[in-house]
Amino acid sequence: MRFIQRWAPELLSILRIVSAGSFFTHGTMKLFAWPAPFEYPMNAMLYVAGILEVIGGVLLLAGLFTRPIAFLLSGLMAFAYFIAHASQGFFPVLNHGEAAMLYCFVFLYIAAAGPGSLSIDALAGKAQQPMGAGSS
């Protein structure tokens, strides 16, 4: 396990990058109909969510202002889950809320753990190592 533990900062960065890249496309679907059109009628709340998904996704992808952006996006996904999915049943697999729930907790973890070693924040010296990284 020490082998994989040595890679924790890089793996945290990969989790952030992959999650942010996927999250970004949710916003581009809402705002630009790319890579496919959004399947529900748009309203003001969805436009705001799309803007946060695009801008927040880019910032998180780059690892810039990672902790506050990840915390904001975690809250956005909690809000999305309870507004759009929870009323359709208890189980996320049945109410189609799995993505919102997972993004919420992944972003909450990133807000707590930081951006990882591969980020603008780390290059600028604003990132701290996640707890436990590099320790025995």
From TrEMBL:
Superkingdom as given in the UniProt entry: Bacteria
UniProt-annotated location(s): Cell membrane
Topology term for the membrane: Multi-pass membrane protein
Protein name (Swiss-Prot/TrEMBL): DoxX family protein
Chain segments annotated as coiled-coil in the UniProt record: none
Entry keyword set: Cell membrane, Membrane, Transmembrane, Transmembrane helix
Organism: Chelativorans salis
Similarity field: Belongs to the DoxX family.
Pfam families in the cross-refs: DoxX
Chain ranges passing through the membrane: 7-24, 44-62, 69-88, 100-124
InterPro entries in the cross-refs: DoxX, DoxX-like_oxidoreductase
